[in-house]
Write a structure and sequence with these properties.
By secondary structure, the chain is of the alpha/beta class. Helix content is 50%, strand content 12%. The chain is built from 14 helices and 9 strands. The strands form 2 sheets. It has a 6-stranded parallel beta sheet, with helices on both faces. Strands 7-8-9 form a 3-stranded mixed beta sheet.
Length: 305
């Protein structure tokens, strides 16, 4: 890992659930940091970590070598790029760690390259706990040279792998979210079946954790479901956005993904009411189509309205 004295100044754009702990880790590791968020109040939480809080995007990116964006979706990245480009220096490296569509990542790459700048799409998996602990899985698309330049930054945030040219990071993230979204729904089905068939669902979860069915989803979100804890982490609306992006990519590639389509429909059934809940709320969607069957006896813990 590089020495902090050699770290370049970084502009971090987007101080949300994920962006705040990621930016805090970079600042605490010694990266000189300019931080910006559409709501400046959220960015001000980074002042205590020694970061420079900026009121505008152009102020944040002016004079920096690396820009990191961690924003809601592709349109937000595009709008932020509109505001940033006039103030950016040729040769700057933009690392988009948001989850976007594959075609959006390709468009961002082409746009930056056309103005003499560089781009990595580097979405992450691991949620807020991974962002806080610095254990994110980072999937990067772009050139080996740019990836190696970004490695000191990535190493503060988690474990990074270059998976192909520009756009490939988003493909890897879509594959990740396909597995996560489908598995959340399958874990909910397994626990609800255990309950309905007369077994102890908590004991069933313990019994299968060490076998082939064991997974991080069963470990973490299976426990969330048992506790009926739907305060986010990863949100239903974010999972649904990713699954819709998976289906869009599948359509472009000419493949049919029936499990992904089913998981998408499950989340769509609770999107309006529970979009801000943890994506373990796949259980609630399942219970709604199984009237009279409920996992456990506890009260639902939901995010505040």
């Amino acid at each position: 890992m590089s020495h902090p004295a050699s770290y370049p100044t970084v502009a971090f754009l987007g101080i949300g659930l994920m962006g705040q702990p990621m930016a805090a880790r970079l600042a605490d590791a010694g990266f000189p940091l300019h931080v910006w968020n559409r709501s400046t109040a959220k960015a001000r939480t980074l002042a205590t970590h020694g970061s420079q809080v900026c009121e505008s995007v152009d102020e944040a990116v002016r004079g920096v070598a690396i820009v990191v964006s961690m924003l809601e979706a592709g349109p937000a990245v595009g709008m932020t790029m509109d505001a940033a480009l006039p103030a950016m220096a040729p040769g700057s490296l933009w690392i988009d760690m948001s989850s976007t569509r594959h075609d959006e990542a390709l468009a961002f790459h082409a746009r930056l390259a056309g103005q003499g700048m560089r781009f990595l799409d580097a979405p992450v998996s691991g949620g807020v706990p991974g962002a806080q602990a610095g254990t994110l899985a980072i999937m990067a698309g772009g050139s080996l040279h740019d990836f190696e330049e970004a490695l000191p930054l990535f190493e503060v945030l988690g474990s990074a792998r270059l998976v192909g040219p520009a756009g490939s990071g988003q493909v890897a993230k879509l594959c990740n979210q396909l597995i996560v979204g489908a598995t959340l729904n399958v874990v909910a089905e397994a626990l609800l079946l255990a309950q309905a068939a007369g077994a102890d669902p908590a004991a069933v979860r313990e019994a299968i954790r060490g076998g082939f069915a064991g997974s991080r989803i069963l470990e973490l979100h299976g426990q969330r479901m048992l506790e009926r804890n739907f305060v986010p982490g990863g949100q239903v609306k974010s999972q649904l956005k990713d699954l819709r992006n998976v289906l869009a990519a599948a359509g472009a590639a000419g493949v049919s993904l029936p499990m992904t389509a089913a998981a998408t429909r499950s989340y769509e059934s609770i999107e309006a009411e529970l979009g801000g809940a943890d994506h373990a709320a796949a259980l609630l969607a399942l219970e709604r189509i199984n009237p009279g069957v409920r996992l456990g006896t506890g009260e639902d813990r939901l995010p505040e309205a």
